[in-house]
Amino acid sequence: MRIVLFGPPGVGKGTQAELLADRYHLIKFSMGDMLRQEVAVNSSVGRRAEPFLKAGHLVPDNIIFDMVNNFLIEYQNQDILFDGFPRNLNQARTLEQSLAQLSQKIDIALELYLPDQEIIKRLENRRYCPSCGRIYNCLTDPPKIKGVCDECGKKLIKREDDQESVIRRRLEVYEQETRPLTEYYKELNVYKKIDASVTKEQIFKKISEIINGYTDKK
Ligand code: AP5
Ligand code: MG
């Protein structure tokens, strides 16, 4: 099974990806996390990607494709959840072609949606663990001890791109570059739209119903 999870910044993709990967034993492909990891270790990919991440622009496709192709080959026999990839039509078409070469396809494309005001509120209150990647919301889903990860005890941090000006840029980029994926996946008959304004447990339940419905039909 190949699932794409897309939606604007801060809508809750990473939160759901964590829950879904665990429940359905999916290999999680989180492009943003992988890019931030490359920046953290100061690799050549990280050095090229960093200015785009900081500014809230998409990293150029050629950098992205190298990372995707290696991943698809490494995990070709496993179920995959794509979080934050593809992010434009070129990436979506290239992914489709790469999967077709492995006799695979996207089975479900889920778009999460939420009003911009709520997105900004969620992102300003987001903290994450740079060690294990767990995501928190200071208001609705705080750690047990303020500023410390429940899982691994590391100090939680705020992402560099979670400042209002960069968030607004990311929202614009989403509208221009990523929004066309809605029509693209509708045409492939794999598209589902999910209201992300409810709790993470309610969103997870809704997505689980979709995945269970799909696997029951097979
Ligand atoms: P990426 O890391 O993917 O960022 P994003 O798409 O902007 O999304 P976020 O990770 O900010 O939000 P999310 O939807 O995962 O929300 P989360 O679960 O954390 O990409 C970053 C950058 O990398 C891009 O700007 C670009 O530069 C580059 N990049 C990545 N992929 C690329 C690609 N394919 N091509 C080119 N460039 C690429 O939740 C947010 C907050 O809300 C948290 O605090 C969470 O606790 C809280 N929350 C979650 N669910 C709920 C809920 N139901 N109720 C209340 N709070 C909730
Ligand atoms: Mg994320």
TrEMBL record:
Residues binding AMP, per UniProt: R36, H57, L58, V59, G84, F85, P86, R87, Q91, R159, R170
One GO CC term, this protein: cytoplasm
SUPFAM superfamilies per record: P-loop containing nucleoside triphosphate hydrolases
Region span, LID: 125-162
The Adenylate kinase active site lid domain, residue ranges: 126-161
Keywords in alphabetical order: ATP-binding, Cytoplasm, Kinase, Metal-binding, Nucleotide biosynthesis, Nucleotide-binding, Transferase, Zinc
Ranges where the record places region NMP: 30-59
Top class in the EC scheme: transferase
A family per Pfam: ADK
Gene3D superfamilies attached to this UniProt entry: P-loop containing nucleotide triphosphate hydrolases
This protein's pathway: Purine metabolism; AMP biosynthesis via salvage pathway; AMP from ADP: step 1/1
Catalytic reaction list: AMP + ATP = 2 ADP
PANTHER family: NUCLEOTIDE KINASE (PTHR23359)
Similarity field: Belongs to the adenylate kinase family.
HAMAP family hit by this protein: Adenylate_kinase_Adk
Subunit and interaction comment: Monomer.
Name assigned to this protein: Adenylate kinase
Native source species: candidate division WOR-3 bacterium 4484_100
Lineage of the species this protein comes from: Bacteria, Bacteria division WOR-3
